[in-house]
Design brief:
2 strands
C-alpha cells in the first residue's frame, strides 16, 4: 500500500488545456455511466416489483381457481344427487298415479281393507324391524306386512 502511494507521487499531472478537456470529458463520461447504471437499477427494481406484484396476484388467482374448482365439484356432486332424488320422486309420483299401487300401499302400510277382507299381520323372518319393513315395502312394492284374505273375490 505504501508502495502504491509512493508510485503515485512519481506521476505528475500536466496542467494544460488538453488534459483539462480530457479530464472534463472523463468526468462527464463517468457521470453518464453512473446515471445509466442507476437508471438501469431503477428499471430492474420496477420490473422486479411488477414481477412480484404479478406473482402474488397470480398465486391469489390460482388459489381462487382451486377453490372454485372444489366448489364446482361439490355442486356437480350435489346436482347429481338432486337428479337422482328427482328421478326417484318422479317414479314415486308415477307409481302413486296407479290406483292398484295406491291400494296395495294403503293395505300394507295402513291396514286398509275392503269390505269383507280380514288382515293378518305376519312378522317377517330374519329379525327385521317394522320400520325397515315399511321402507322395503315402499321401495319394492313386493313385500307386505299383512296377509289378505279376500272373501268372495
Amino acid at each position: 500500500m505504501g508502495k502504491k502511494k509512493k508510485d503515485m507521487d512519481k506521476v505528475a499531472a500536466l496542467d494544460n488545456e488538453y488534459t483539462k478537456e480530457q479530464y472534463a470529458e472523463f468526468q462527464k463520461q463517468q457521470k453518464q455511466l453512473i446515471f445509466r447504471r442507476r437508471r438501469l437499477a431503477v428499471v430492474f427494481l420496477v420490473a422486479f416489483v411488477i414481477f412480484i406484484v404479478s406473482g402474488i396476484q397470480l398465486m391469489k388467482d390460482y388459489q381462487q381457481l382451486s377453490a372454485f374448482k372444489t366448489q364446482q365439484a361439490e355442486a356437480v356432486a350435489e346436482s347429481a344427487e338432486a337428479d337422482k332424488k328427482l328421478n326417484r320422486l318422479e317414479q314415486d309420483v308415477a307409481l302413486l298415479r296407479d290406483d292398484d299401487y295406491v291400494a296395495k300401499l294403503a293395505r300394507s302400510r295402513y291396514y286398509v281393507s275392503k269390505e269383507g277382507e280380514q288382515i293378518y299381520n305376519i312378522p317377517e323372518l330374519g329379525g327385521t324391524t317394522s320400520s325397515s319393513n315399511e321402507q322395503k315395502s315402499s321401495d319394492s312394492q313386493s313385500q307386505s306386512h299383512s296377509s289378505e284374505k279376500q272373501s268372495g273375490e
